[in-house]
Amino acid sequence: MSDDPVILRPVFEDDLPLLESFLTDPEATGPFQWHGWTDPGRWRRRWAENGLLGDDGGQLMVTAGADVHGFVAWRKVAATRSSYWWNTGIQLLPKARGRGIGTRAQRELVRYLFAHTPVVRIEADTETANTAEQRALEKSGFTREGVLRSAVFRDGRWRDVVRFSVLRDDVTAQVIRALT
């Protein structure tokens, strides 16, 4: 585990080549996130439009010490016209995986979204075979809800995913327990 605090920050223009590598380099992406070639220019266009921070979602860079390790993201999922929640994700460079950085980054993202948006629910999904991410989500305060069958198409076949969620009340209860 890295001892440096994990910090989330907005995407800078200098970060765009790193983000583009997640769309063009299967090794950087890792086995559970490579979904084939896609337009690497989309990051640059979206960054020019809104800095990758919009009303329907966003991206923040994950840093620890002087190093950039990847990014976290969230997107709006509408339940009704007047209610929504966030679905979150994370992508780390290979050198950052397995060091606790992802767990801390996801915890920070949950804190950020509950502090700055009125949602009551944040969810995350990962493939059933991605046990490391499942552990990271649980350590971040998420609760496993169930399996969505054949929800993601990757590498020639449909794959099941596990859905996790954390509620605003869960975080409040965790803070109260930590203070007592």
From TrEMBL:
InterPro entries: Acyl_CoA_acyltransferase (IPR016181), GNAT_dom (IPR000182), N-acetyltransferase (IPR051531)
Keywords: Acyltransferase, Transferase
Protein name listed in UniProt: GNAT family N-acetyltransferase
Pfam family, any one: Acetyltransf_3
SUPFAM superfamilies found in the cross-reference section: Acyl-CoA N-acyltransferases (Nat)
Source taxon at top rank: Bacteria
Domain N-acetyltransferase, residue spans: 6-169
Protein family: Belongs to the acetyltransferase family. RimJ subfamily.
Gene3D superfamilies: 3.40.630.30
UniProt KW Transferase keyword: yes
Hydrolase listed as a keyword: no
